[in-house]
Amino acid sequence: MGFPLCALVDDSLESFTIVYFFLFVYLLTSLLMWDIFVLLNANQNKVYLNNKINTYPLFISSLKYLITNNPTLALAFIFLFFSLAGIPPFVGFLSKIYVFFFSSGR
Q1: What b/e string do you get for 23-40 counting C-beta neighbours within 10 Å, with b at 16 or more?
Q2: What is the pTM of this model?
C-alpha cells in the first residue's frame, strides 16, 4: 500500500486518478495470475482408480513442466509475474513509474 499512499500525498484529482490506475492494474494482473492457477488446477493429471477420479494436488514444483506442456500459458504466467514484480517493459512497471513521476511533490 506504499505506492498508492505516495500518490495520495497531493490532494488533487490527478492523484486519485493515479491511485485508481495503479489499483486497477494491480487488481487485473492479480486476477489473471489467480486464473492461471485455477486453470492449472483444473487441468492437472487425473488418475482413475476403481471408477473414481483421484487428482493430485497442485504444488509449486508442478510449474517446472509448464513450458513443455503449455508454452502459451507459461508465457502468460511469466508476463503476469514480471508485471506484478514491476520489471520495466510491463504494465506493472508503468503504473509504478506513473505513481513516482506524477505524484512527486510538485
Answers
A1: eebbeebeeeeeebeeeb
A2: 0.75
Q: Kindly state the cell numbers that stand for 62.
A: 508442478
**β-bridge partners, 48:** 53
Q: Mind spelling out the 3-state secondary structure of 25-43? A: HHHHHHHHHHHHHHHHHHC
| Whole-angstrom distance, CA of residue 81 vs CA of residue 74 | 10
Per-residue pLDDT of the chain (106 residues), as tens digits, is 787 888 888 778 888 888 899 999 999 999 999 998 888 776 665 555 566 665 666 677 777 878 887 889 889 999 999 999 989 999 999 988 888 887 765 5
